[in-house]
Each structure stands twice: as C-alpha cells, then as structure tokens.
Amino acid sequence: SRVVKLAVIPGDGIGPEVVAEAEKVLDAVIEGAEVTFEKTRFSLGAARYLETGDTLTDEDLAAIAAHDAVLLGAVGGMPGDPRLKDANIERGLLLKLRFALDHYVNLRPSVLYPGASGPLAEPGEIDFVVVREGTEGPYVGNGGSIRTGTPHEIANETSVNTAFGVERVVRFAFAQAQKRRRKLTLVHKTNVLVHAGGMWKRIVDEVAAEHPDVAVDYLHVDAATIFLVTNPGRFDVIVTDNLFGDILTDLAGAVTGGIGLAASGNINPDGAFPSMFEPVHGSAPDIAGQQIADPTAAILSVALLLDHLGLQGEAERVTRAAREDIESRDGTARTTAQVGDAITARLRA
Amino acid sequence: SRVVKLAVIPGDGIGPEVVAEAEKVLDAVIEGAEVTFEKTRFSLGAARYLETGDTLTDEDLAAIAAHDAVLLGAVGGMPGDPRLKDANIERGLLLKLRFALDHYVNLRPSVLYPGASGPLAEPGEIDFVVVREGTEGPYVGNGGSIRTGTPHEIANETSVNTAFGVERVVRFAFAQAQKRRRKLTLVHKTNVLVHAGGMWKRIVDEVAAEHPDVAVDYLHVDAATIFLVTNPGRFDVIVTDNLFGDILTDLAGAVTGGIGLAASGNINPDGAFPSMFEPVHGSAPDIAGQQIADPTAAILSVALLLDHLGLQGEAERVTRAAREDIESRDGTARTTAQVGDAITARLRA
Ligand SMILES: CC(C)[C@H](C(=O)O)[C@@H](O)C(=O)O
Ligand SMILES: CC(C)[C@H](C(=O)O)[C@@H](O)C(=O)O
C-alpha cells in the first residue's frame, strides 16, 4: 500500500495542541484505507530557538524537503519576549519554508459553514477561495535601511514580482475557478502600484483569453475589503499577491466565523517540493496549554492535505465531519481534545 | 473679516454632485460668521484629461497651492475606458496633489453615528480615527519594470520610509490621542516588512516614552482587519503607513455605515501648503448624474476643513447637523440635493 512521508511541525503556543487533534483525525480517516502515513516530528519554532539558537538549519530544511507533505501547527513566541528580540521566527522559519519549498500557491478557502456565526448581520452564503501568491511580492525580504536607528534613517522594502511567478499562480487560480463557480476576481492596487499591478492585470487578461468560460473581474484591495463585509457572496476565486492575500484572508476568516476555522495550504503544484498545510491562525501563546484553542482549522487543513495527496474521498469525509461538528455546536465549551474527539467520532460513525 | 481662499475641485462622476451639497452647507454655516470664503473652481480629472490631455499642469498646481485650503469631490473616469488607458488620474492628479502639497497626515475619522447601520450584527460603539501617512511608503511611485510585457518581465515597487516622515505623522497621532481617549495603535507588518516596520515600531516606542499618558499597542495589519469587524470599539487612534491606511479606512468606512459617510482630510499640519478635504469614496461614474449619491461624506469633509481652519464652532455645527440627519433617516430615498438641503435646513434651525 501507498506510504506517505509526512513531516509534522507542531510548533509553538497552541500549535502542538491543535496538531494533536489534526493527527487524531488523520489517523482515523485513513484506518482501513490503502495508505499509511510515516510521520517525522520536527521540533521547530520559538521554543527550539530559545533552547539551541537555531531557527531552521540547512539540515532541518533538507530533511523536511525529503517528505511528501508537511503539517504545521503554528510558530512564534510570546510577542515582546526580550529573548526573541533578534529572532524572526516568522521570516526565518515559516516564510523560509514557504520560499525554499517553492509554495507559490497559498490556498485559503473561506466558507461560512451552517452553524458558524461571524460578525456580519446578514452574511448570506459565503464560499470562496483565495489563491494567494506565496513566493514573491513584498514578502521577498528585499528591504534594507541606512542610518538605522537615527533620525535620518531611510528604510526601504521592495516588492519583487515576475511574470513567471504571477503567471503560474494565475493559471492555478483559473483552474480552481473552472472546478468551482467559474468566477475569478483579481485583487491588487493597480492605480498606485502601477508596475506590479499592471503586470498582474496584463497576465490575468492574457490567461483569461484562454478561459472564456471563466468570468473575470478586478477590484482594488481597499474596495475588496468593503465587499468582504457587505457582499462576500460575490466572490468565488480571488487571486492576489502575497501581502494583499495575507490581509484579505485574515478578514475573510473573521467574516466566516473566526480564524479558529480557517485552513490553508502552501502548495507547490509542480510536486517538486512537499506542500505544507497549516491553520491560518497563529500560535496564540496567551492561550497555549489551556486546551481552549479550536483545532478545527488544523483539522480542515488535514482535509486540504488529503485532497492535495489525491485522497479526495478521505478529504471529503474530514470536511463533512468538521462541518457537522460546527453545525452541532450550541455554545457549550469544549476542550481542544473534545472537539478533536467529536470530529473523530463522526468520522468513524 | 477673515477671508479664506478655497480651491474647489469637483472632479468626475459623482464628485460635482456631492461637492455642490458640501458647498451649500459651507455657505450656510458661515452666514453671519466673521469669515468669508473666496472660491476658485478647478476643472480637473478625467473629463479635463479627455478634453485637453492635461492631468495636472504646473500652473494648476501653483494656482492651487496659493489657496488656504482645497475641497475635492472625487476624480477618476469610467474604469476600462480605453481613452484613459494611458492616463493615471489617481497618480497624476490625486496623489500628485497629496505629495506636492506635503499632505503627510491623511486623517480619516470612523464613527458609527446613531441611526447609521453597517454590516456588523453587534457593532458596539465605534469612534476612532485613522492617521494614515500620506507622503511615503509604497505610494512613492518608486517602481519600475524590465522586459515589460514579455514572459520575462520583472516588476518592482519600492516602499520608501524615512524617520523624518514617520516621526512627524506619529507625533501628530499622539497629539490626536491626547485630545481623545488616549489610546494609540500602531498597525504595520513588522514580522515581514522588517526594515520599514522596525523603524515605525522604534519611532512609535520613542515618541511613546514622551507620552506616558497615552496607552500604546501594536497590531499586524492582518490582525487589525479582524478587530475592525469583531471589536472595532477597541480602537481610538490608529497610526499606520500609506497603503495599510488605505485598506483599513475603506474597511472602517464599510463597518461604520458605508463610504457614503466617510470623510477625510489630507493635512499639512505645518501650514506650508493648503490642506485638502475629500470624501473617502471615489467618483463612482456608474451612478453619476443620477442624484443618488450620498453627499454626507463630502459634507463631513467640510466639517474637517472648518476644524482645520480653526473654525471649531462651525465645524461642530456641520457635524451635528449631519449626525442628526443620519439619525432621522428612515430608508426613504432622497436625492443628493435633498440630503444637502435637509442638512442645511438643520444648520439654519
Ligand atoms: C506569520 C506571518 C509571517 C504569516 C504571513 O504574513 O504570511 C501569517 O500572517 C499568515 O497569514 O500565514
Ligand atoms: C484613488 C486612490 C489613489 C486613493 C488611495 O489609494 O489613496 C483612494 O483609494 C483613497 O483612499 O483616497
């Protein structure tokens, strides 16, 4: 039977708690299936940094890259921890993985599940997916400063965008749209970022010409945030750059019931590198170890992972079980493990 | 009596309609006051560009700069108009004015007025102000591309940030906080944009040390969008960069009842150049000429203009009249002029 080598990075804060439940669900859904998961655990994150001074060594990276897929909880220490002042766990670990493993698609579905309640008075039906570029834009780390720390400091950040990088993610987004409601919205800020925005627009127009079955529109990022709260039902597939995607998906998560439910996949569609699945939420160190974090986002990330591995049946079972669990919620407090157990029980039922 | 030289730029689309009402209100509120407004109208925007090919000439700019203040409606033609393909009215006119007139504070109050209804189920009390930097960041126009239009295109955009530019807007924000509820939130993305974000953070920390009476916190821009829909009442003063401010204020406008109500001031606090007041909304060419645009944002921008000119009593009267009008709305459709007339009548009452 097929063996999937899975790298597991529980990380910091609530990461280990939610990953434990995600693994529980994963183990349950593949019981009796023609696939087994061989897991390797990687101790990475703020805790590891504080112990050893390492964020992500070349050896770590090579070892992770030798897997078929990665499941990540969340990384990052307590904000303001003076011992982490010189560490940048986000850049040195999370973004380093996304860039080194060429995760050029950051796939973030936003669904308002029946029973989930968000902040909107009349949310309507919400079911869209954000295809966020993952390896370019303002995230490339192409910044610097001079006269640093003085009143004459100049700090620059350069957003780097390539036709190569934009075209591949745009093509992925069109393919998603064809599997969905055939509507694609480009979000950028073409009126201000005329060079990067102009190139995104040109490439979307070019690829659109090859996909006459997909309806395409464009929104400036500021206008897109308005529609996310006034008419989220208008969206099917959003394709956008790394930074705008970061912002829109947190907002989308809030609108669809909170980032406790928002799953994501950092995907290398070419298969040259393992893809990495993680909840959109962070490590939330303030509530860590209390068994109060919602593991649903991590569990739905397992569904994305299964889908990516071609295990569509298993992916759908996980999504359905999580969906039923959300629908059954009545406000009674449950521990992280109780939510994981409940979803696992539904899977087995 | 005092004479204020006011440049009026009605602009495109609904701009002229809402500016007409804003002027009506301005004329009414200064009746009998020790001040007169000497107005010069500037025909600028997409319409002017289509007629003459000019966006903003040096003569226009010099003439506008010789005024005490500017009232602007909205500029920008019909999206996708092929005749505007090579024009960038936003960059060439609106942003050029903001940069040339050194509008380093873009002040955008967000208030949920009684009677106004936004998309949130439980909005709570919302009353904050965004102090958006107006002359730096990703808006500087420091971008370019090579191999443009080919599959090998590289398009870069550089965000330029200076300690000088950040410190002056941060000081303005702290002064605002001291006049309000003494709480200031810096919004940036320090974990990714480490150089620009690091400088913003350092300067806010330094200025905070001089203002022990102001409580300061920090949010990443993605998290800030979540709080804007789940707990907008937590905000008093937000200080942020040009692009993040653009995004947050559209979202904030939506949350407080729509950008039909959102006013803004592009302010040069030093008084070296005239400040410019404009609704946050755009020219909305699709609904132009139909007398269905809400002029309230333009009218509230007049209140900001009066306040900036030191006419606090008049500013408060305009705000109160607009506020009462909003509170009295019962869903009956009114024309743009009817809303302006109603607010004018309240002023006179
Ligand atoms: C932690 C941070 C670097 C990251 C990002 O900005 O991409 C996070 O916000 C996310 O959305 O996954
Ligand atoms: C029209 C555009 C250039 C402008 C901006 O991005 O600043 C607008 O969105 C605004 O917020 O005033």
Automatic annotation (TrEMBL), chains A, B:
Cross-referenced InterPro entries: ICDH/IPMDH (IPR050501), IsoCit/isopropylmalate_DH_CS (IPR019818), IsoPropMal-DH-like_dom (IPR024084), LeuB_actb (IPR023698)
Catalytically driven reaction(s): (2R,3S)-3-isopropylmalate + NAD(+) = 4-methyl-2-oxopentanoate + CO2 + NADH
Subcellular location: Cytoplasm
Domain Isopropylmalate dehydrogenase-like: 5-343
Entries under Pfam families matching the protein: Iso_dh (PF00180)
Site-annotated residues for Important for catalysis: Y139, K189
Listed Gene3D superfamilies: Isopropylmalate Dehydrogenase
Binding site for Mg(2+): D222, D246, D250
UniProt remark on cofactor binding: Binds 1 Mg(2+) or Mn(2+) ion per subunit.
Positions bound to NAD(+): G282, S283, A284, P285, D286, I287, A288, G289, Q290, Q291, I292, A293, D294
Cofactor(s) essential for the protein: Mg(2+); Mn(2+)
Residues annotated as binding substrate: R98, R108, R132, D222
This protein's pathway: Amino-acid biosynthesis; L-leucine biosynthesis; L-leucine from 3-methyl-2-oxobutanoate: step 3/4
Sorted UniProt keywords: Amino-acid biosynthesis, Branched-chain amino acid biosynthesis, Cytoplasm, Leucine biosynthesis, Magnesium, Manganese, Metal-binding, NAD, Oxidoreductase
Chief subcellular location: cytoplasm
Enzyme class: oxidoreductase
Molecular function via GO: 3-isopropylmalate dehydrogenase activity
EC number: 1.1.1.85
Subunit relationships: Homodimer.
Biological role: Catalyzes the oxidation of 3-carboxy-2-hydroxy-4-methylpentanoate (3-isopropylmalate) to 3-carboxy-4-methyl-2-oxopentanoate. The product decarboxylates to 4-methyl-2 oxopentanoate.
Family of the protein in this entry: Belongs to the isocitrate and isopropylmalate dehydrogenases family. LeuB type 2 subfamily.
Protein name, entry field: 3-isopropylmalate dehydrogenase
